Amino acid sequence: MSRPRTSSPARPMWMGRPSFLVTVLKAVVLSVTVVVMLYPFLYVIAGSFASSNARSEGSLSLIPTSFSLDAYASVLSGGIVTRALMVSIGVTVIGTLFSVTLTILMAYGLMSTKDVPGGRVILYLVLFTMLFGAGIIPNYLLVRQLGLLDTYASLILPGAISAFNLVVVRNFFMNIPREILDCARIDGASEWRILSMIVVPLSKGVIAVIALFYGVAYWNDFFNAMIYLNDTAKWPVQLVLNQYVLQGSPLTPLQNPAAPPPPADAVQMVVVVLATVPILIVYPFIQRYFTKGVLTGAIKG
Amino acid sequence: MDQRSMSSPALLSRRRMLGLGAGLAAAFPLVGGCRTEAPGASQTPGGVTSFTPPSFIPPDQIPGASISDIAGVPPAYTRYPSELVRSVKEVPGRGGEVSTFQVFEQAPPPSDNPWLNEFNERLGVTLRPTYAAGPSYGEKVQTMMASGDLPDITWIERSIAPGLIQPMLQGAFTDLTDLLAGSGIDPYPNLARIPTYAWRNSTVNGMLLGVPSALPMVNQVTMYRKDWATELGYTEPPRDAQEVMELLAEFTRGNHRGKQGGDTWGLATLGHGIGLAHQMFRVPNEWRIEDDGSLTNEIETDEFEAATEYLVELWNSGAFHPDAATLPVLDAQNIYQNGRIGLLPAGVTPHYRTMLPALLANVPESEPTAITPPGHDGGDPVIHQEQGYFGIAAIPSDVGKDVERLEELLRIIDYWCAPFGSEEHTFINYGIEGRHFAFDDQGTPVPTAGDVWAREVSGPSWLVAPREAAFFFPGNTEWGVAAQKAVAAAVPQSVENPTSNLISDTDVRQSGSLNEMYDDYLYGIITGRRSLSELTEWRDEWRRAGGDDIRNEYEDVM
Amino acid sequence: MSGTTPSSDVSTTSTSAPPEPLPALRPVLARKRGLRQRMWQARWLYLFILPGFVYFVVFRYVPLLGNAIAWQDYSPYLGFSGSPWVAWDNFARLLTDPEVANAVTNTLFLSLLQIVFAFPAPLLLALLLNSIAGDRIKRVVQSIVYLPHFIGWVIVVSIWQALFGGTGVVSDLLAQITGSPVNLMTNPDTFAILITSQVIWKEVGWGTIIFLAAMTLVPTERYEAAAVDGAGALRRIWHITLPGISTVIVLLLILRLGSVLTVGFEQIILQQDAVGAEVAQVLDTFVYYRGVLGGDWGLATAAGLVKGVIGTALVLGANWAAKRFGGQGAF
């Protein structure tokens, strides 16, 4: 009953050919959406190349009145951002692997609470953490007590599992036809084998999604770093970049009159660009897992 | 569960900018007042245990110095002294480590920072700084306090973390009142240069809990575009509120050279207009002491009502930028620097050090000129004194118990406070010659190109160094005297907030929401969202929401 | 839904290994066996759960103890042990504040708008994307629409300001049409629409991700079968796609209900001054002004707990309702 996978962009047979009107309508809706979403981003990019304050006058010009790399030079000079990028990449990669692994294991363990005495209670315990949180003081005291202050682990462990992601993954797992798993059990497969050989391959989509969620969360987080890291050499890129945004503030006491710093808002835009580019690069590799269907039939057969 | 999101950095930095960049009075009624005795000679505010400030050593009459004889006016310098004196005779530290907690709004310095290495050598200790990224300051300092981890020298900035007052009153920091009173300051000659008002204003309930980083007592200068005014036919500065309104409306409407660059406006933000109107209409500096000794809040006064009525008219005249209610201060400054705003009040040093050079670079023909706003009726205005200090360098009480350690830390702070014209000041502010700065042909230290200075010196050195309470603007040395003149003109007309160093528990808890109410009503009335008659409702609501309690608490301690 | 005795006694595993049942019989026998055997049987699953369980206990539940300061007049200096206990004082101050009613009303109104409009928006976009045959177009579009998610609120607001503010491009256009100045950013009457539109704009693309992932799970055979029956595109969506991802939709909706008292704090506080507290005061901004700024940790914590209790009630209620009406529920 398996069918050859239609991997080419060609239209699957069952989709049929939409009418001309529908095609036009879709094209219009999508184009408008794309423009509305893309325009501000181009605006940010254009702004990052602005050399004077001329941009901040309310005109949403995509072409800066004068082109300059000053803001980039100012942010990237000194190697601090580069170093912080390394920190962030490390934390993001390790943190994401760690989080995704723990989440998958726990979600699978809790998939069928019928089979796991106490599982339901654990599930509710997890759920409550979405609704009740602790303030920063108890969290800080805990991290300090565990000796994690000023360690990279303090950027990973306190947020290692998101209850939301866990519940989502579990929900996806539960959508896998029960018979597949039961068949495997009858065949004598261990739970580990079922998880790794059946459940995970069938859930590439959701795993890609939570990897993305975790990855972006680790990447964007600067709150933990701000509170837990005193050593500025360990600061991740978001925290460092955040500092540049603050630079326009009144504490800036002196400047070289011959070479004034680049406009604050250009720096702000540079920060957005630098903070987003790595995600833009990685995104397409993850995206393919949730935009392309998995043929369950193929596996069943 | 949302305390995390409460730390929203953007928000706090916005508040911070509102609060400090443009001068507190313009944006927040955090500081504010009454008619008092001549500034500088002010008496101990009533009631509170009498506070003897540390003795004061006036600035030295070095070449290029312009020392005002009006108390409370900072010195200005037209050139950098060619011979730098040594203000500290001995190495202050005794080895070992000293931890610090500093606010930090810069890119982080390299871990092996040449400037810090040299500073350590000079201090005879190894500094272990903890940098709180600006917006996280309040949370981080309270979190470290909760864990008992407060560094030896901790920066306390109540204006961005009002809640700190509670631990301060509970004894979290070493009380320096007796130690430094009068001649007690003598072992720390640089600290004796700190203006008396800064010491006094930084006390809480008569307790001196740290060394203040001084700001000018009147820290606001109002600039207007004289070139536009001249073209519009106003050759003299406006003499009353009506003329101010006319001028501001014309800045928006009229035909002047600023129009070549696009739209122009009289005022950028509502906060700027409010500050201006309150000065012209002589609104009290937050509170006024009546003859019977009772307190009246500014919003309860007729002056406030008149100023508000005026602001409504001013709004309707088109003087304001259309986004005046929300425009962040930084954006407002940008628009001003691009030559699109006719009048702008701002902090003295930000104005002369940053904004004027930028404006003149963008619009070389502009003639920004400082003015003192007129009284609304042509008489004198009332200028609001501000808190006169940024924050304090405090020593946690656990640390300060050890007297020797306490003295060592004070010596380190003393070094940090080295006055203008000293070798130490040059090092702390400008860094190492050759690496961070070079003397130009007039002997002015100028930061080297690139951002080595910004990275290695500017952030790590920011603590108590006197940066804004002495006017010296490298590259534009004549502005120092101009700034001093502007402040000197304002100080005699200024009043202090009679409650500025009193503590009201309700005020601490409620200031956030009362300030919000203030913005909500005042902005609403000015922009026409609310009617002027809602002022009555506002006053009632304010009294109910804690205003009366605050009044009673202040009156009790006065 | 299970008839098992709820037991939190997870760590106790039986030491005496009972004989393994035949694998084929396992599901059948599971219910009939004693607790110990069932636990032993699930030993691998417990092992899988263990690291996560430890994480939740250590990093989520231990700090929760700190919420006890909701019953204290907490001072960071005096610490947990030194701060005075004030019973329900903080809750009383919170709930009797005259402003809180307004804040809660605004919060609920904004939340409702977001659930009605911002919640389904990514679903619709995902359905649209899913209906595109060309994989490349689909991916390109999808990877553009998620971009705004990465722009912080400060910049989002300034971009909107530049478009819709008093000097904005769109405002100029509208002003020319209507003949009077328009400032959509300062109009209290349209504030809720403004906030909801911004949320949709910023998060719609990001939100598609999870729905698209869910759609990959719908077996292709069903579409093929439907095509054989002659079902059109809309009918396929209605009868196959939506039912296929309904559990995910229900799950997300239930979880969203749990945060009904939370609406974008930063987004709102940045724009609050322009329209006033009457329409723009929400619970989080209220707590911020009332509690956080004044260092009133007790009050802020009490507010968090109240939100948690209400969120819990809503989540459990919605979950119950979802099951009641034949769904699977979230858990």
How are the SSEs ordered, and which strands pair?
The complex is a heterotrimer of chains A (301), B (558) and C (331).
Chain A: H1 20-48, H2 70-76, H3 80-109, H4 119-131, H5 136-145, H6 153-156, H7 163-174, H8 178-186, H9 191-202, H10 204-220, H11 223-228, H12 237-246, H13 264-291, H14 296-300
Helix pairs in contact in A: 1-13, 2-13, 3-7, 3-10, 3-12, 7-10, 8-9, 10-13, 12-13
Chain B: H1 3-6, H2 9-21, H3 24-27, E1 65-66, E2 76-77, E3 97-104, H4 114-123, E4 126-133, H5 137-146, E5 153-156, H6 165-169, H7 177-180, H8 196-201, E6 210-214, E7 221-225, H9 226-231, H10 241-253, H11 270-280, E8 287-289, E9 295-297, H12 302-316, H13 329-337, E10 343-346, H14 348-362, E11 368-371, E12 383-384, E13 389-394, H15 397-400, H16 403-416, H17 423-430, E14 437-439, E15 445-447, H18 452-458, H19 478-490, E16 494-495, H20 505-527, H21 534-557
Parallel strand pairs in B: 3-4, 3-5, 12-16
Antiparallel strand pairs in B: 1-2, 5-13, 6-13, 7-10, 7-11, 8-9, 14-15
Helix pairs in contact in B: 11-12, 12-20, 13-14, 20-21
Chain C: H1 26-30, H2 35-41, H3 43-64, H4 79-82, H5 89-96, H6 98-118, H7 120-130, H8 135-145, H9 153-164, H10 169-178, H11 191-215, H12 220-228, H13 233-258, H14 265-275, H15 277-280, H16 283-292, H17 297-324
Helix pairs in contact in C: 5-17, 6-11, 6-16, 7-11, 8-11, 11-13, 13-17, 16-17
What does it look like?
The complex is a heterotrimer of chains A (301), B (558) and C (331). Chain A is mainly alpha-helical and 301 residues long. Chain A has helices spanning 20-48, 70-76, 80-109, 119-131, 136-145, 153-156, 163-174, 178-186, 191-202, 204-220, 223-228, 237-246, 264-291, 296-300. Chain A is flat, with a radius of gyration of 24 Å. The model of chain A is unreliable at 1-9, 53-60 and 294-301 (pLDDT under 50). With 558 residues, chain B is α+β, with helices and mostly antiparallel strands. Chain B folds into 2 domains: 9-38 and 219-384 and 504-558, Periplasmic binding protein-like II (D-Maltodextrin-Binding Protein, domain 2), CATH 3.40.190.10; 85-217 and 388-466, Periplasmic binding protein-like II (D-Maltodextrin-Binding Protein, domain 2), CATH 3.40.190.10. In chain C, 68% of the residues lie in helices and 0% in strands. In chain C, helix 6 (98-118) packs antiparallel against helix 16 (283-292). Chain C contains 17 helices and no strands. Chain C is flat, with a radius of gyration of 26 Å. Chains B and C meet through helix 1, helix 2, helix 5, helix 6 and helix 20 of B and helix 9, helix 14, helix 16 and helix 17 of C.
